[in-house]
Design a protein that fits this description.
By secondary structure, this protein is mainly α. It has two domains: 374 residues, no CATH class; 88 residues. The protein has 19 helices and no strands. Helix 3 packs parallel to helix 5 and helix 9 crosses helix 11. It is globular and about 70 Å long. It starts with a helix and ends with a helix.
Length: 474
């Protein structure tokens, strides 16, 4: 059947000679995991070497915003086994990273630069590993699904297996789906709504499968409840980290899980934001796509989400491009940052795309849309007080609060050997040094008019200056 008849993009069809090119392209999926593996393998790090390992992530973010696209359609005869091997290798690397992270924090403290980098590097990789888990739980073989569930256990989110397959894929684009973001809904409001709602939905789905949606927790049939199994496995894994590697490793483990789930729900947020299903059948225009080359190859085909929902069992290397699907402005890596850090920008861009395609609330006969929740709660009150400050003061006040809290923690952890004032002076000196280097970078940028050169010089200066001043700081 012709691609025009199918409704998929009219793009060049791959020839057999291009299969190896596609497979080699998907080796990009090792970029994020290997960055995290190098980080945990080379620790503990000093304050002036740890930030250097964020550079690869910045490059990946930059690549995901480039106008480099991949719209070619796959061959039906594309062999599966080489692409499956990539998924299994990514799974193995994830477990190795978590093990090395636990070992690292037997020799590193809570209030250290490595703990901060866990938030960025390992947490980001664990969010990526949920993509690998997502691919596995959609497989038909039981052992692959089990492997996917084990990956989800490492981020304390095993119920995603039940809710995603039997909840989200059935109800996507409807008011009943907690993982579909409403038009106008902020990420903060979506996060507060979707996390508990998805767990409750998964619990009800399992209770219904076992015979009674209102089943009591101590009903004997609960022994077969997969959500209970997941909770037990998650807890056993977390407390094994605590028992064998200690409290600091346990804290790092919980931190990477939290960051991973935040990233997952950011992806859930923009994959269906503002879209509403018109009928019983899921259509390609019920999901957002992106044509980013880096997202397609670096995130094992996740960019082609419209075809994934139309054909959930299709493996990542066989996913197709559909012309009807709305298109996200950049790739997934850049979008997670935009959704969490610059949510207003995302909503403006997404609204413009929906209006251009006459989708969501801009459709000719749109279904009723539930009103998005209004941001409320203590966090919102604190944010309001913060925004009342002059814009120039906000970063200064925020940094001062963080410095004081970190210094208190360091002093408490060190005991009598370090006072809070000493810790504050030490951390303040580090921030001042980094601020001076950043100021120098801006000056160099004005002189040479080249971001790559100015950032390159700044990155060389950090370890040089750090090595020279650390004995003085001590």
């Amino acid at each position: 059947m012709a691609s025009a008849t199918l409704g998929i993009a009219d793009a060049a069809t791959l020839t057999p000679s291009e299969v190896s090119e596609i497979w080699l392209g998907h080796l990009m999926s090792f970029c994020i995991p290997l960055t995290a593996l190098v980080y945990v393998w080379t620790g503990p790090h000093t304050w002036y070497t740890a930030p250097l390992l964020v550079v690869p992530l910045a490059i990946f973010h930059w690549a995901d915003t480039r106008p480099l696209i991949e719209r070619r359609q796959p061959l039906d005869s594309l062999p599966a086994w080489p692409f499956d091997l990539l998924v299994y290798a990514l799974t193995a690397i994830h477990f190795l990273i978590l093990y090395k992270m636990a070992v690292l924090f037997t020799a590193q403290s809570v209030f250290s630069v490595d703990m901060l980098m866990i938030f960025v590097v390992v947490g980001g990789n664990s969010g990526f590993s949920i993509i690998t888990a997502h691919e596995l739980i959609h497989r038909k073989t039981g052992w692959e699904q089990l492997l996917g569930r084990l990956l989800l256990c490492t981020v304390m989110y095993e119920h995603f297996y039940t809710e995603h397959l039997r909840g989200h894929h059935v109800r996507v684009g409807t008011p009943e789906d907690p993982a579909t973001a409403r038009f106008g809904e902020s990420y903060r409001a979506f996060w507060r709504r979707t996390v508990p709602a998805q767990f409750k939905s998964a619990w009800r789905l399992e209770a219904k499968r076992l015979g009674d949606e209102e089943m009591h927790l101590f009903d004997a049939r609960m022994l077969g409840n997969r959500i209970v199994h997941g909770l037990i496995a998650e807890s056993a894994l977390a407390f094994a980290i605590l028992y064998f590697f200690g409290g600091v490793a346990f804290g790092a483990y919980l931190l990477q899980a939290f960051v991973a789930v935040r990233a997952l729900e950011a992806v859930n947020y923009f994959e269906h934001w503002g879209l509403r299903r018109m009928g019983r059948r899921v259509r390609p225009l019920d999901s957002w796509d992106t044509h980013s080359w880096f997202t397609y190859y670096g995130l094992i085909g996740l960019s082609r989400h419209a075809d994934h929902h139309a054909n959930p069992s299709r493996p990542y290397q066989q996913l197709r491009v559909w012309d009807q699907a709305p298109v996200l402005p950049v790739g997934y890596v850049a979008l997670v940052d935009m959704v969490i850090g610059r949510n207003d920008d995302f909503r403006k861009l997404a609204s413009a795309e929906l209006e251009r395609r006459r989708l969501g609330p801009f459709a000719d006969d749109p279904p009723p849309f539930p009103e998005p929740e209004v941001d409320r709660g203590p966090a919102t009150w604190i944010a309001r007080q913060f925004t009342r400050l002059p814009s120039a003061l906000r970063p200064v006040v925020g940094l001062a609060i963080v410095l004081c809290l970190v210094s208190l923690g360091m002093a408490f952890e060190a005991g009598p050997s370090m006072s809070w004032v000493d810790a504050l002076l030490y951390n303040g000196a580090i921030v001042a040094i980094l601020g001076a280097i950043l100021t120098a970078r801006f000056w160099i940028q004005k002189q040479v008019q080249n971001n790559w050169i100015s950032w390159g010089i700044a990155l060389v200066l950090i370890p040089i200056v750090g090595t020279l001043v650390t004995p003085w700081l001590s």
